[in-house]
Amino acid sequence: MSAxxxxxxxxxxxxxxxxxxxxxxIEVAIEDLSDTGDGVGRYEGRVVFVPDAVPGDRxxxxxxxxxxxxxxxxxxxxxxxxxxxxxxxxxxxxxxxGCQWQSVAYSAQLQAKQNLVTQAIARIGGxxxxxxxxxxxxxxxxxxxxxxTYPLSRSSSGKVQAGYYEKNSHHLVNINQCPVQDPxxxxxxxxxxxxxxxxxxxxxxxxxxxxxxRHLALQIGRRTGQILLTLVSANRKLMDIExxxxxxxxxxxxxxxxxxxxxxxxxxxxxxxETRCVAGQPYFVDEFAGVQLQLRSDTFFQVNPETAExxxxxIASRLELQGTERLVDAYCGIGTFTLPLAKRVxxxxxxxxxxxxxxxxxxxxxxxxxxxxxxxxxSVEKLLPQLENLGLPAGEKPDIxxxxxxxxxxxxxxxDTLIQIAPQRIVYxxxxxxxxxxxxxxxxxxxxxxxxxxxxxDFFPQTSHVEAVxxxxxxx
Length: 476
Ligand SMILES: C[S@@+](CC[C@H](N)C(=O)[O-])C[C@H]1O[C@@H](n2cnc3c(N)ncnc32)[C@H](O)[C@@H]1O
What we know:
Layout: E1 25-33, E2 39-43, E3 46-50, E4 58-66, E5 70-80, H1 106-123, E6 147-154, E7 160-165, E8 172-174, H2 186-199, E9 213-220, E10 227-233, H3 241-251, E11 255-262, E12 274-280, E13 284-288, E14 291-295, H4 305-319, E15 326-330, H5 338-342, E16 347-352, H6 355-367, E17 373-377, H7 380-383, E18 400-403, H8 412-421, E19 425-430, H9 433-445, E20 449-457, E21 467-474
Parallel strand pairs: 3-5, 10-11, 15-16, 15-18, 16-17, 18-19
Antiparallel strand pairs: 1-2, 1-4, 2-3, 4-5, 6-7, 6-9, 7-8, 9-10, 11-12, 13-14, 19-21, 20-21
The structure holds S-adenosylmethionine.
S-adenosylmethionine binds at residues 300-302, 331-334, 336-337, 351-354, 357, 379-381, 404-406.
């Protein structure tokens, strides 16, 4: 990499350090991708992060934020195109903040995710040459998402808009289709938007905290095709919503329910606490890994169920389940993993903080006739130390603990409890390699656990997000 005058378009100093300044243009060869989605290059031993870059590109970059050892740059010109640079599927890929890697060939996305997991475990987890298996790709790199939640706004000409926010902003990019969503949702997006316009419903303005409709959420059962539509409103009432909802139900044969969520708060959180069904039913049904699940709009469900199913199958076969095991699924949500695994173990116990998710998990256990599984509402911090009160026979410990915490990872107290209980095997599913690595370090430094291997999986193609599962075994 060398300094360049960029055909005299940009200021460039003569000496090496003069180029390491805000506003200078430098040439950077992109070697990898970062967890925020930026391309990563090096300039005289220092790191340069560049959005919209592809590994293998040689770029002219303007430095916009400069620190002694690293800088953030803006892409000015592609000097040499990487063979991995492709034409985005999406017509608004350059603006929309939903995806970061539409210009990156899928094989290069997978390689970058493999590197992200390996580097985090080595650097933060302190594990040299971590045993990372080849990443499990998403069978569908597009059209994989079963859920779309679009913020709503009104354009300057008064048109109702729905889409995703621009990168680093709250400015909406209006869309009528999205290539990562299940294509069966696309027709509803454009038409429902038009109906909202025709009804004259007011649209929420977040700056002035005025108006009604905030979000449109669409969910679909991958196998059943059932669709649930949820509108999020700053008011409990929406004029004629019942009539419009019935009209949608008769227009779309696969639509099974329309819900109205009430969110009156000044907040970035999408949903408020109250959801009521205005037509049809408040849930849709899908099949996942051999179980039937009732799913709602106010509880977490995997957005790429096709890949989640493959990952679950790989977990189950790695565990070589005999049907004699007692399993605890901490952070179990609606029982997405607990219920299919309950069919293959002696006893399964699910722990989850969201009461709505626990209620659905219990309903789903009954729906599938599973009697060896129980679900308990409360924090893992509180429930994990008292498994004997939750149905685990006195004097026994779980053979396997499955962890699937949110991005921030496990609370330190959860890891301490695990070290104390010392189950033979821990399976840690994570959507953030950095917090996974931090927690693995604590578990492995205890001297009790050894990292057997890691399995990354691509739940979120076209984005920089990556899922990874760590398998730990108790030594001795
Ligand atoms: C990444 S989701 C995983 C859910 C589930 N395993 C699935 O695949 O559908 C994390 C879940 O942890 C729950 N959660 C977050 N903090 C928690 C805590 N301290 N104790 C128990 N559950 C928690 C969330 O409500 C959410 O359902």
